[in-house]
Amino acid sequence: MHKQTTSLLSPAVGTQRELVSFHFAPGSASTSAQSGSSASQKIYIQSSLHADETPAMLTAVLLKRRLLELEARGALAAEIVLVPVANPVGLGQYVVGQFVGRFDLASGRNFNRHFMQFPTLAERARDLLGADANRNRDIIRDLLREELAQQKPLTEFESLQLALFKHSFDADLVIDLHCSLEAVMHVYTTEAAWPSIEPLARYLGAEASLLATNSGAQAFDEAHSLIWWHLQQQMPASKPVPDGTLAVTVECRGQRDVSYEIAQQDADAIVDYLVSRGAIRGEPKGLPPLRMPATPLAGSEQFYAPVSGILVHRAKIGDTIRAGDALFDIVDPLTDETTTIRSNTDGVFYMRRAIRFVTAGAPLGRVTGTRAVRTGVLLGA
Ligand SMILES: [Zn+2]
């Protein structure tokens, strides 16, 4: 393993942050015994891009320990890049005792939204691509590398997004470890990637798997998968474009779910998955059952407070919900009036906010649903 340090753009005289990445190399057995795509497999894993999502960071710490040991035994069959602190900018944002890790205080931007797009890529690729999908993948990655090399970030925020993307754009698999506020283990990926990601959801014990090709948020995972999806839509069948990068966001439960037991379980699940993909040598562990079938992200119901008041939860995280079940009460402390919010879908109550007093319009939580009902941007701010 070697440690790499990338300096971010200095936002002000006398300040300098850096992004630290750990690079694990495949053992020598793979280079001699294997050839082609399996030998060149690259895995990119980062945690806590939303800097205040600490469970993901502890998972990365324990994952690093396992990778060090696997590398020492020559058991790695892929290049693995691990970034346990994906957001040193957000990590420094303490405001009157509160940790603000989701949004950049300088710009108000969400750290996991609006990652870069490559609008001229298809035009540039069209003449270069041929009939060999594997060769086309390499050509597209070369074009991406060139485009990234030319980018000139203006702010520290942009330089962070660019530094992360430069580590990840040529990975075959991107795992972005986050957590929610109060939540069960759940994952986000695309319909196209789901057959390949499903074993990871099983090993992790995901209680919800939410699928969308394009949520409209241009989150880190989507910024990778959409590059290839857009090219697939635009290229003729004679120029096949593979699914260059499989990408998944893993929500490691809720923000306060920081424990060695849980983090070890999640790190082990990721290792089991990498073994099943051939990225780590070994006998794949038997696949546990999928706890809940995948559902469309557009089918999950999002609840908002119709009025302000004291929020009292009527359902527990992870509960199986039927349409009509009460999820939240909002109690007005002056009139004693109670407003009950009920689910309109059958599904799993997979996440809720950590607040207990709400303002009108505040988001409250989400329940999965099998029928796509929402349109537009599918992820919240
Ligand atoms: Zn997050």
Draw up the topology in text:
Layout: E1 2-7, E2 18-24, H1 28-33, E3 42-47, H2 54-72, E4 79-83, H3 88-91, E5 94-95, E6 98-99, H4 121-126, H5 133-150, H6 156-168, E7 173-180, E8 182-183, E9 186-189, H7 194-204, E10 208-211, H8 220-234, E11 246-254, H9 260-276, E12 295-296, E13 301-304, E14 309-313, E15 320-321, E16 326-331, E17 338-342, E18 347-352, E19 357-358, E20 363-367
Parallel strand pairs: 3-4, 3-7, 7-11, 9-10, 10-12
Antiparallel strand pairs: 1-2, 2-4, 5-6, 8-18, 9-11, 13-20, 14-16, 14-19, 15-18, 16-17, 18-20
Helix pairs in contact: 2-9, 7-9
This protein binds zinc ion (ZN).
Task: Walk me through the structure.
It comes from Paraburkholderia saeva. This is Succinylglutamate desuccinylase/Aspartoacylase catalytic domain-containing protein. The protein is of the alpha+beta class. It has two domains: 2-293, Aminopeptidase; 296-367, Beta Barrel (OB fold (Dihydrolipoamide Acetyltransferase, E2P)), CATH 2.40.50. Helices cover 29% and strands 24% of the residues. It has helices at residues 28-33, 54-72, 88-91, 121-126, 133-150, 156-168, 194-204, 220-234, 260-276, and strands at residues 2-7, 18-24, 42-47, 79-83, 94-95, 98-99, 173-180, 182-183, 186-189, 208-211, 246-254, 295-296, 301-304, 309-313, 320-321, 326-331, 338-342, 347-352, 357-358, 363-367. The strands form four sheets. A nine-stranded mixed β-sheet has the order 1-2-4-3-7-11-9-10-12, with helices on both faces. Strands 8, 13, 15, 18 and 20 form a five-stranded antiparallel β-sheet that branches. α2 (54-72) crosses α9 and α7 runs antiparallel to α9 (260-276). The longest helix has 19 residues, at 54-72. It is globular and about 70 Å long. The two termini are 36 Å apart. Residues 30-38 have low confidence and may be disordered. Bound molecules: zinc ion. The site of zinc ion has 4 residues, from loops.
